[in-house]
Amino acid sequence: MKTHFVILISLVLFLSTALASADTLTAVCKNAKGRMIGKEGPAQGNKPVDGEDGMRGGQLTVLWNTDRQDAQVVTQGSGGGDPLAEKATTVHLTAESVSFLVTYAQALWVYTLFIPAKTVLITQHVSGLFMNTGGAIAKSMYAGCAINFQ
After folding, report:
1. Does residue 148 contact residue 23 with C-beta atoms inside 8 Å?
2. For residue 122, what pLDDT is reported?
3. Whole-prediction pTM
4. In sequence order, what are the residues at sequence separation of 6 or more whose Cβ sits closer than 8 angstroms to the Cβ of residue 82?
5. Predicted local confidence at residue 81, as pLDDT
6. Which domains are delineated in the chain?
């Protein structure tokens, strides 16, 4: 209950910097770019990984009803196809940012929206690229966003 109260107070402060009547946050972010670092798994010889990464031409949309802890992250690649919608959990909230967590069996993604900066920072931690597990790889990207409250 105490955690709920802290989240509620933080949410009130957060929303006061945007729109007082905001119920839903929608962030549309495009062309994320960044880097990946780490080491591949044994199937790839445990080779170091250090290179550019990103979602060139891709789009990421975050939908969050500010009254709830869960959100939705929808990604669409540059080549089209069906968008991928994932359930996200709100894990951190400040007057300037909100962070969402998406988990998979082999990976963890963190999406942090910085509202005044209209920017998302994206971090992925995974045990390998593609089907190659046994390594440790981190991806870190950023993208500009159009952020709206309704």
Report:
1. no
2. 97
3. 0.81
4. none
5. 78
6. 2-149 (2.40.160)
Q: Which of 119, 87, 116 is nearest to 100 (CA)?
A: 87
Distance, CA of 99 to CA of 86 (rounded, Å): 15
Q: So what's the pLDDT on residue 22?
A: 55
**pLDDT score of 3:** 47
**Burial (0-12, 13-18, 19+ Cβ within 10 Å), 141:** buried
In whole angstroms, give the CA distance from residue 118 to residue 111.
13
Give me the DSSP letters along the chain. Answer: -HHHHHHHHHHHHHHHTS-TT--EEEEEEEEEEEEEEEE--GGGTT-EEEEEEE-TT-EEEEEEETTSSEEEEEEE-TT----EEEEEEEEEE-SSEEEEEEE-SSEEEEEEEETTTTEEEEEEEESSSTT--SSEEEEEEEEEEEEEE-
pLDDT digits (tens, 9 = 90+) for 88-117: 999 999 999 999 999 988 899 999 999 999
Q: Tell me what pLDDT residue 77 has.
A: 85
